[in-house]
Design a protein that fits this description.
heterodimer; A: 461 residues; alpha/beta; TIM Barrel; seven-stranded parallel β-sheet; two-stranded antiparallel ribbon; 16 helices; 53% helix; 11% strand; globular; B: 258 residues; Methyltransferase, Methionine Synthase (B12-binding Domains), Chain A, domain 1; Rossmann fold; 2 domains; 13 helices; flat
Chain lengths: 461, 258
């Protein structure tokens, strides 16, 4: 299907948003309704590396993981859980492997659901295998295998379909290391959005055919790369004011999935999901303080503010003092959800939401912009020119700059370096054309010359 | 909506980067470090500013004044890059500045080579690769840029590099060290195999490894492994080797932080 662009906000104002409640709840799996008044822990895990040696070992590993999580959820009395399996490359390159894992996991989940009534669903996140050693290979043979992996998993037990797609990454990797704002805009906002439209039209069709849910994407490959490079307060690899710019630009890019038929919940590591929830009203998974097993961030509490599912990003399966890692992290997630659900049931959700938000609001420009009131403003800037993928990405970037500048005039402290990087970025944005065709033509010429791994044919040019 | 007072906010968080920011601007700090020679100064400054055209213009002016192109690599380009890496190490400038300066310096080196009959001498060769099965190469790209910026000749094997290709490149290029980066736990096990095959051939050079899921405990499991927590550790490890620290245990002692 063609993309149906969002040109207005789902919520009348930012204060309407809360965790656990979305405008468009999603039914999935075994009795779950996501975003329908309660939050759900979403546990994510990685097999031990040696488990990838054969299909049999891999399936067995995921059986252990699934049983451990379901068992712990029942032992501590939690009513619902989502399991997310992010494919290791063998599972997507060989769709039958992913399918067998999905089947094995779902069989166990069904047993628990039948015996205890625990509500649950299985997300499979297919690996974006569309590349070879030298280049991204977004179209062609690898794309066929990629779609086959979705279909086989959907037919074998996966309820929610996701991917962390990589369109635009080759240009982004070059641009982000050179403070190149137009390059970031082109990579994420234009190339990324174009690739998203292609893949999510096809994924949504597979979901429709198989009776599963096209759940959503994340700009992990780009915005999270920026966040990761930016690192902590004392790291000197990227200004945090530029990292949040990449994040703002990623929102209209990840939005494309929902414009092509995805329903949510959006993928956990999409920190841009708060903006997308404001625009779409669809449920979102988020991760923060509970994903410290995978990476650090500067908004561990804040990002819980409006989540519908709460994730740990990923943890390698092995033993800890308190059980296996998936048991420890699923329990932590579920307790967080129990607190949020208690707030919902006692009508205190806005107080808790604001406590989550405020505890990190001024920690960093990244958290400041993603505070739900500011994220809503970025959303408004996006839908203002919702029909134009370039302009809406540019709008998001400019709104982001304005929000940080306003914050810096108040309680948000910026270093001189962050302030200068922001000013340079704003000046760069202000100098850009409003004409998408001109921008696209100029960038195509520039990056074909500067980025040797950029193949325009990947984007249908 | 809930909000802090200025006083209450300070009890909840501290932006240490703001609190500890150096008083001097990067430009002021660089100005103090530039060489004073009137032919070299504009080249070094152009390197710091990442202005490729200005670098070439400065080099041309110096050559027109009789300077030897190959000598200019060490006396102007590397000096300018030295300013950049020093300020990066001191936390005064950020990585993108280094990357842009490195681009300008490499452009300048090419210009010098084009104008000379002789080849420049480098500090040594380093073979860099991303683990087999892994296509995430931004970390490797930073490592190669920083190594080149510090005067090393880099053999960049790219990403998803077969183990045997790494070993063959080491045999052919005789580097002072190999680097390996990986994002995923599932691919980093290739490092062990590279290690074992190097040892089978009697090659005992340091194998500096780092990246996303790679950690010190893992790298310490194979004989040649030296863990680099940050990309900026790569040139420092190379410098230590050039300075005579070739023993793996000594390198680990120096660079392992945990």
């Amino acid at each position: 299907m063609a993309a149906t662009r969002f040109t207005k906000m789902a919520y009348a104002n930012a204060d309407e948003m809360s965790f656990g409640v979305s405008k468009h709840p999603v039914k999935a799996g075994l009795g779950l309704e996501i975003g329908a008044g309660y939050t759900i822990p979403e546990v994510n895990y990685a097999p031990r590396p040696e488990a990838g040696a054969s299909k049999e070992k891999l399936v067995k590993e995921y059986e252990r993981i699934t049983t451990d999580i379901m068992s712990r959820m029942v032992q501590v009395g939690f009513p619902a859980v989502i399991l997310e399996t992010e494919h290791v490359q063998q599972m997507s390159n060989n769709p039958s492997w992913g399918a067998e894992v999905a089947h094995a996991q779902k069989t166990i989940m069904e047993e628990y659901h039948d015996e205890y009534g625990i509500k649950c669903a299985l997300r499979h996140t297919i690996g974006d295998i569309r590349e070879n050693r030298d280049f991204l290979q977004l179209r062609g043979d690898k794309y066929s295998v990629f779609l086959e992996a979705f279909e086989q998993c959907a037919k074998s037990g996966a309820d929610l379909l996701s991917v962390e797609s990589m369109g635009g990454k080759e240009v982004f990797d070059h641009a982000v290391l050179r403070n190149d704002i137009p390059g970031m805009l082109y990579a994420i906002g234009c190339l990324g959005s174009m690739d998203m439209e292609m893949i999510w039209s096809d994924i949504a069709a597979i979901a429709k055919k198989t009776g599963t849910v096209a759940a959503g994407d994340t700009d992990c490959a780009q915005a999270n790369t920026a966040m990761f490079i930016a690192g902590g307060l004392l790291d000197k690899n990227l200004a945090h004011t530029l990292a949040i710019l990449a994040r703002a630009i990623s929102a209209p890019r990840s939005l494309v999935a929902y414009e092509c038929g995805a329903k949510g919940p959006g993928k956990d590591c999409g920190y841009e999901n708060i903006i997308i929830k404001a625009i779409t009203g669809m449920p979102m998974t988020q991760e923060g303080k509970t994903s410290t097993c995978a990476h650090s961030d500067v908004m561990g509490n804040l990002i819980m503010q409006c989540c519908d599912c709460w994730s740990n990003e990923s943890v390698e399966y092995h033993g800890e003092f308190g059980g296996t890692t998936v048991q420890c992290w699923s329990e932590t997630l579920a307790y967080d959800c129990a607190l949020m659900n208690t707030a919902l049931e006692t009508k205190n959700e806005k107080v808790l939401r604001d406590l989550f938000m405020l505890s990190d609001r001024y920690r960093d420009p990244q958290s400041y912009v993603l505070a739900y009131d500011n994220a809503y403003r970025v959303g408004q800037a996006i839908v203002k020119d919702g029909d134009n993928i370039y302009l809406r990405a540019k709008n998001a970037a400019i709104a982001c700059c304005d929000i940080v500048s306003e914050g810096a005039a108040g309680k948000l402290e910026l270093s001189r370096f962050e302030t200068k990087a922001l000013a340079d970025a704003k000046a760069s944005l202000d100098s850009l054309t409003d004409d998408m065709d001109t921008f696209m033509d100029d960038c195509l010429t520039k990056y074909k010359s500067e980025v040797k791994v950029f193949l325009p044919e990947n984007y249908g040019f | 909506m809930l909000d802090f007072t200025e006083a209450s906010l300070k009890k909840v968080l501290t932006r240490y980067n703001v609190a500890l920011e150096k008083a001097m601007t990067p430009e002021d700090a660089a100005e103090e470090l530039y060489p004073k020679d009137e032919l070299i100064y504009p080249i070094a400054k152009a390197i710091f500013e990442g202005e490729e055209d200005d670098v070439v213009e400065g080099l041309q002016a110096a050559m027109d004044a009789g300077k030897d192109p190959i000598t200019l690599i060490d006396d102007a380009l590397m000096v300018g890059m030295g300013v950049v890496t020093k300020l990066y190490d001191e936390g005064i400038i950020f990585l993108p500045n280094v990357m842009m300066s490195a681009d300008a310096m490499l452009n300048g080196i090419e210009f010098c080579k084009e104008n000379s009959e002789t080849a420049p001498v480098t500090k040594g060769t380093v073979v860099c690769h991303v683990a087999e099965g892994d296509v995430h190469d931004i970390g490797k790209n930073i490592v190669t840029a920083l190594l080149r910026a510090n005067g090393y000749d880099v053999v960049d094997l790219g990403r998803d590099v077969p183990i045997d290709e790494v070993v063959a490149s080491v045999v052919a290029n005789k580097p002072l060290m190999v680097t390996g980066t990986a994002l995923m736990t599932t691919t980093m096990y290739a490092f062990k195999e590279v290690n074992d095959k190097l040892l089978e051939k009697g090659i005992k050079i340091p194998f500096a490894c780092g990246g996303g899921a790679v950690n010190q405990d893992f790298v310490s499991q194979y004989a040649l492994g030296v863990y680099g927590e940050e990309a900026a550790d790569a040139p420092k490890i190379a410098d230590a080797i050039v300075a005579g620290t070739t023993d793996i245990a000594a390198l680990r002692n120096k660079f392992h932080k945990h």
